[in-house]
Predict the structure.
Amino acid sequence: MRPLVLSLAAISLVACGGGGARSTGSDASAIRGAIGGGARPSAAAAQAQPAAAAGAWTSLFDGQTISGWHNYKTPGAPVAGWSAVNGELVRTGPGGDLTTDKQYTNFEFELEWKVESGGNSGIIYRIDPASEVSYTSGPEMQILDDTKHPDGKNPLTSAGANYALHAPPAGIVKPVGEWNAVRLIVNGNHVEHWLNGTKAVEYELGSPDWETRRQASKFATWTGYGRAARGYIALQDHGDRVYFRNVRIKELP
């Protein structure tokens, strides 16, 4: 994401969540399994994990094509800068944010990501299609190499954060080169970011607390920020190589 103008004190909320193997259909637990081919969450984490809402999961990446996506503001045009490589969705060059063809209202969104050294990206949601750029309307779950990127020095802009507004607990992001499991829940005004089995942040869009934080950030003058009840989801092109897999979504009532 872009540099932070003014930040608040970091607030850490700890719980647990999920991520894991590629799956479709009603198998809501499969993606919460092994990350990068190994360990599963602890028994305590599994017990504390929130129950998935009823509904069908839909895969948004088949490992071979980029069907169902477009570069922001260019629907219908060939995708530039993003490729399917060895079953992974990779930002390989300039092209702009990779954006879902479909708009979503309430949903659970899951994927795994990894970045190269110093890498930066993000998951931006409920993007108003009228916005000139995605991040002026859509809130962002930060993707980052916390150890090498300058944003990693500020908890409010570290991996898992609600960028510039809510900080995650320290130490929940995996080292560079390892896969990180994301679960993003957006239901009405309620939002949860889960990273590697930990609830990174939780907030209510439009609440007095959220509004206070927004007014104290660079978003203060962006009147449409966080206001859309429905919109696109995008994977941010921040100029760095970033990898995604196991991308899927479940729409909520």
